[in-house]
């Protein structure tokens, strides 16, 4: 197993784990159970996505493509350009 990415938070980690699973890559979210210890443990570097050695390069490529993606043109509302509306 290789650690291929350190997500910023649990939500990003689970999102990327699901994306990799949809591409046939079984990823493990290492450190998920340590998040409850924040304050007594260092706040950074707890989470990591780990995959099998033979799928590590492909997983890194998928994550890099995900991080480089831009919103589709026309997805933003015309009267609120540049503002995320939830």
Structure report:
This protein is of the alpha+beta class and 86 residues long. The chain has one domain: Alpha-Beta Plaits (2-Layer Sandwich), CATH 3.30.70. The protein has two helices and three strands, in the order E-H-E-E-H. It has helices at residues 10-22, 56-68, and strands spanning 2-5, 27-30, 48-51. It has a three-stranded antiparallel beta sheet, with helices on one face. It is globular. The mean pLDDT is 81. This is DUF2007 domain-containing protein.
Number of helices: 2
Strand order of the largest sheet: 1-3-2
Query: What top-tier CATH class fits best?
Result: Alpha Beta
> Structural class of the secondary structure composition?
alpha+beta
Work out the radius of gyration: 16 Å
Q: What's the count of strands?
A: 3
Count of discrete structural domains: 1
CATH domain topology: Alpha-Beta Plaits
Anisotropy-based shape: globular
Strand/helix succession:
EHEEH
End-to-end Cα distance, whole Å, is 37 Å
Report the uncertain regions: none
Rounded average pLDDT: 81
Helicity level, as a percent range?
25-40%
CATH architecture grouping: 2-Layer Sandwich
Largest β sheet strand count, sense and barrel closure: 3 strands, antiparallel
Report the portion of residues in β strands: 5-15%
InterPro entries: DUF2007 (IPR018551)
Domain DUF2007: 1-65
Pfam families: DUF2007
Protein name: DUF2007 domain-containing protein
